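User: what does the whole thing look like in 3D?
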Amino acid sequence: MTLADLRTQADELDRNDSLAHLRDRFCIPRHTDGADVAYLCGNSLGLAPTAARECVEQELVAWEQLGVEGHFKHERPWVSFHELFAKHLAEIVGAKPYEVVAMNTLTVNLHLMLTSFYRPTHERFKVLVGHAAFPSDRYALASQIELRGHNPEEAILTAKPLAASRVLRTEDVVALIEQHASELALVLMDGVNYYTGERIDIAAITEAAHRHGIVAGFDLAHAAGNVPLALHDWNADFAVWCHYKYLNGGPGCVAGCFVHERHGFAREPRARMAGWWGHDKHSRFKMGPDFEPIPGAEGWQLSNPPLFSLAALLPSLELFAEAGMDRLRAKSEALTGFLELAIRGLFPEWGEVITPAEPARRGCQLSIRVTRDAKRAFVALVANGVICDWREPDVIRLAPVPLYNRFADIVRCVEVLSCAK
Ligand SMILES: Cc1ncc(COP(=O)(O)O)c(C=O)c1O
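Assistant: Here's the predicted 3D structure for the full assembly of 421 residues, as structure tokens:
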């Protein structure tokens, strides 16, 4: 394969891409040469939809013109604004609308879920986590374990890849669940791992955990909006995710949370951290002293939500609804496959792609452990308008996302690499 072949293929793929028009609905940053950057970093911070500014401005104007009356008299009243998101989020994570809610931020939601779902006993207090769990999740978990009087070093079991492999196979996680079933209270895994890009089988892990009465919860920061999900049917107990990566809600955007209906609608509501926005909507403003949770995920809300952050998120969710997850996933597999083909074909000695090769076991990110001049290659990419990221000690992450990336972006990435070598 040559670079010229790759360019020809990319031109054709871009010409035949039925989602190509969606790129115009995003603001693509410009490189110093005036051309669009090749933005391969949607796994870190998604780009701004062109409609986001207007959507936020509408709320600013409402605030200016209505003041407090915006809560009830605005055409999209703020008191119920977050409800606009349930249908979209339910589609994206495969849930019923009442099983999802947009609230807080990811780590806060993880704490809220651990408070309700990590119920250690003397015998069963351990938590199984994946090998490259995001540090914030480990900090949250360790602090929750300590708060319940256990020792995190003893209580956290880490599922590691078997010697020859860099990725964690679902069957190995299931084997660990079987092995430690009598001491596990919770399994907490990433849907897609932030470092390796590996995707785990949520249904299989949940099923194995439930066979032994263990709760199964998931961090979907890198899965939501990236891979198809069916949390309700897979029976997950809870999940949390952020909206600033694949869901393009902007930096620090309000996050998402899923609670399966069997918990959200249980006759005996789960213990939780409570706040007035989770209180029954009909009596919330009676300001009574006793907390009565809204059935479903909304019952875990604490505060009235950050309106401008929600407003910035809405246009992206509408784009997801317009494109449909099936079409996005098909393009995502094609883009990632093309990137892998280009890297393996043109730079076989550059490094090792540590993300699994099977499309079903990954999303749109490829993590490459670069064996030669890793930092130099990364610096060259960014200096030449290929925006990607670096994870210590030697991993470059490239993520072509189907909403706004073109096959031509991958060619640009490869062109820079071929000059940097
Ligand atoms: C997998 C994963 N979990 C948790 C977090 C923490 O998110 P937040 O800072 O929004 O709480 C991140 C942030 O990038 C992440 O990638």
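In plain terms: Residues 105-107, 134, 136-137, 190, 194, 219, 221-222, 242 surround pyridoxal-5'-phosphate (CB under 6 Å). The two ends are 17 Å apart (CA to CA).
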